[in-house]
């Protein structure tokens, strides 16, 4: 091994794999919206994309296919077990232009600004004014933002509220925000459009960042 080579990262522990498996089971209902979300985001070859709340890396294949080897993906995941699995996925595929981290880097890491952001089930970011503002400063004017995740259904779909509260409420710090999780984005993305699916238990919110 040369001085510049890094030792291979060990296979994720059983605990990490269990956490990833649980995440995948809880998000199976929304597998179809992952493809739709990346389509709405519309990254192009060479773009830099922020994958916020990347989990075990479920969106990375689709994003990497769009940005190609000349693009860059910064994937952020705060849960250590899921972070470990995402990093292992990236290393196993040999994606040198995909970086997985526990937090967004300082501005020096994004000198030119990112072209798009995908906050995926990242309610803790969306519901925090400070964290959302910081995320948006990492983007260039006109960047695309697509947020997706769970929500509480309304109207005649109220029986599904118990299902969402039981399965996904514990995963967010402010369960009450599940009524309209995209609300904080409306002041930053004037063209925001929202699509609900899964009997009102899931959503996709897409828009374009205004120049600051």
Considering the chains and any ligands shown, give keywords for the structure:
alpha/beta; 212 residues; 7 strands; single chain; 21% strand; globular; 33% helix; seven-stranded mixed sheet; Rossmann fold
For the secondary structure, the number of strands is: 7
Task: Provide the succession of SSEs.
Answer: HHEHEHEEHHEHEE
Count of discrete domains? 1
Amount of helix:
25-40%
Low-confidence stretches: none
What gross morphology would you assign?
globular
CATH architecture, by name, is 3-Layer(aba) Sandwich
Relative strand content: 15-25%
Structural class: alpha/beta
Q: Profile the largest sheet.
A: 7 strands, mixed
Global mean pLDDT? 81
* Gap between N and C termini: 48 Å
Number of helices: 7
Cross-sheet strand order for the largest sheet: 3-2-1-4-5-7-6
At the fold tier of CATH, the topology name is Rossmann fold
CATH level-four homologous superfamily name: Vaccinia Virus protein VP39
Radius of gyration: 17 Å
Describe this entry's structure for a reader.
It is a single chain. The protein has helices at residues 14-27, 31-41, 60-67, 80-93, 123-126, 129-137, 159-167; strands at residues 48-52, 72-76, 98-101, 114-119, 139-150, 193-197, 202-208. It is of the alpha/beta class. The protein has one domain (14-208): 3-Layer(aba) Sandwich (Rossmann fold). A hairpin with a 4-residue loop joins strand 6 (193-197) and strand 7. Helix 1 packs across helix 4.
């Amino acid at each position: 091994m040369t001085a510049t080579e890094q030792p291979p990262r060990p296979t994720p522990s059983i605990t990490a794999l269990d956490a990833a498996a649980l995440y995948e089971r809880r998000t199976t209902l929304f597998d179809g919206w992952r493809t739709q979300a990346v389509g709405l985001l519309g990254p192009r070859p060479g773009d830099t994309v922020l994958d916020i709340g990347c989990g075990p890396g479920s969106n990375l294949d689709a994003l990497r296919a769009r940005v190609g080897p000349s693009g860059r993906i910064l994937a952020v995941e705060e849960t250590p077990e899921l972070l470990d699995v995402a990093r292992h996925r990236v290393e196993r595929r040999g994606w040198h232009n995909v970086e997985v981290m526990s937090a967004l880097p300082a501005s020096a890491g994004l000198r030119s600004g990112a072209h798009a952001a995908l906050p995926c089930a990242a309610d803790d970011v969306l519901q925090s004014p400070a964290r959302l503002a910081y995320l948006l400063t990492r983007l260039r004017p006109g960047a695309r933002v697509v947020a997706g995740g769970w929500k509480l259904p309304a109207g005649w779909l109220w029986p599904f509220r118990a299902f969402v509260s039981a399965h996904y409420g514990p995963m967010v710090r402010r369960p009450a925000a599940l009524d309209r999780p995209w609300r904080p984005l409306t002041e930053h993305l004037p063209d925001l459009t929202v699509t609900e699916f899964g009997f009102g238990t899931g959503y996709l919110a897409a828009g374009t960042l205004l120049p600051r």
